[in-house]
Amino acid sequence: MDQFIIHGGQKLEGEISISGAKNSALPILCASLLNGTSNIIHNIPQLRDIQTIKKLLISLGCKWERDDKTVYLDSTNISTMQAPYDLVKTMRASVLVLGPLAARFGYARLSLPGGCAIGARPINLHLDALRKMGAEITLSSGYVEVKVKKLKGARIYLDIPTVTGTENIMMAAVLADGETVIENAAMEPEITDLANVLVKMGAKIKGQGTDSMIIKGVKTLRGFKHTVIPDRIEAGTFLIAGVITKGKVVLRNADPAQLYALIGKLRNAGANIKINKELITISANDKLRCVDIKTLPYPGFATDMQAQFMALMAVSDGLCVITETIFENRFMHVSELCRMGANIRIEGAHAIVTGVKKLSGAPVMATDLRASACLVLAGLVAEGETRIQRVYHIDRGYVRIEEKLRALGADIIRAKSAH
Ligand code: EPZ
Fold it and tell me: Ranges for the Enolpyruvate transferase domain (predicted)?
């Protein structure tokens, strides 16, 4: 397994280009199952999770070619509708094949995704919606089976605006008989990106990007060409890298409209942020101030940015409360930050952070994707050497992060772990 070795204290300066969004590429690649023809998707990031969905889609019968950031995906010959345990267990987003397979074939069998480090993450809302659309759902020996002659449109209210749940329902509804209404739908930019792809295929969708979507089923769908939107979480992570090291970082290809909650909070904390067409520039004259954050569904502050923001608050002035409302166990990074000298106390869903003068480098362990990013950010500013074990977590969501950071002046290398 690989580790990162970081020597903190370097100011990050320069320009980086933001890669395509992982959480947009994954549903769009699964949506390609719907049309039974060939599709071209540009700006696909080179990530472990993309490798995983590639294996899954090929195992179902898809043809997959890749040329740099473009994937040519052909779903003409689907030979099986089963997603096996050994693939699903490595990535929960595999659940995104349920909707398209049920819509096109009336059948899907998926190993139930287990929980993960950040929470139980059930898929009850996905399954309740498919049931309402006429599917028969059976759970046995760790698998979920979806069977239906033909899905029919339904009015679905989501107790929680689940992101992949909304995406599964969208992909189920586009070929269903009649109209589907999704209320309390997720509004993330990745939802709108998927809707744009489905519309390119010939789907009839209204209200994407709002909490209420109306989808009229159609008979068939055609092939599409699409360029995936930029990754707002990678962009946010690099904004924090620039400001935590008191450097000056310019992001190219980022979309500021996706980042208003984070940009607003960074400005309240004292960061200088300039936005023009497709460049975002961040810098900080001196220490930032601690500001409270509360994670919420989009357009609120993204839960996927909580850990990274906490690293910044750990070395800012004052005290703040960080409240995590989306996942029940998304403070795994706190104990590792405290080992680096941070002063953080957890009270239920709240982390009370008192800024300290400095962090000290230490050997730490990555537990999940965004917690790993948090530890990298802390390592960039800590005094001395930080070794982060199990960086395969970070490779799931960031394209060669150590190379991008080194290009900005960070002292970070990837090395084989001693054990
Ligand atoms: C998506 O996960 C993202 N993954 C996550 O990003 C992100 O953290 C999350 O949305 C929230 O924004 C992808 O898009 C591939 P949810 P998802 O369903 O869809 C509960 C990353 O770092 N819930 O919106 O799985 C659930 O337990 C990853 O890239 C149910 O109870 O998240 C959670 O508490 C991590 N029943 C809350 O809703 C359900 O049926 C939000 O989950 C579905 C969800």
Answer: 7-405
Same domain? 170 vs 275: no
345 marked as part of a ligand binding site: no
23 in a known ligand binding site? yes
Cis peptide before 299 (omega within 30 of 0): yes
DSSP 53: H
Shared domain check, 347 and 297: yes
- Output the ligand 1 site: residues, CB below 6 A: 22-23, 26, 92-93, 119-126, 160, 162-165, 303-304, 326-327, 369-370, 397
Report pLDDT digits (tens) over 232-277. 999 999 999 999 999 999 999 999 999 999 999 999 999 999 998 7
CA distance 306 to 235: 14
Whose C-alpha lies nearest to ligand 1, atom 9? 163
288 shares a domain with 187? no
Q: Quote the pLDDT of residue 20.
A: 97
Instruction: Write out residues in the chain with pLDDT < 50, as ranges.
Output: none
Nearest residue by C-alpha to atom 1 in ligand 1: 163
Q: What is the CATH number of the domain that holds 45?
A: 3.65.10.10
Contact 337, 358 (CB under 8 A): no
Q: Atom 14 in ligand 1: which residue has the minimum CA distance?
A: 23
Q: Are residues 320 and 180 part of one domain?
A: no
Strand partners, 214: 181, 206
Q: Is 343 annotated as a binding residue?
A: no
Range of the domain at 253: 2-15+231-416
For 237-266, give one letter per residue: b (16+ CB within 10 A) or e: bbbbbbbbbebbbbbebbbbebbebbbebb
Ligand 1 centroid vs 38 CA: distance in angstroms? Answer: 29
Last residue within a domain, chosen from 199, 227, 255: 227
pTM: 0.97
**In this predicted structure, what is the pLDDT of residue 278?**
78
Catalogue the active-site residues.
116
Same domain, 37 and 179: yes
pLDDT number for residue 419: 61
273 and 180 belong to one structural domain? no
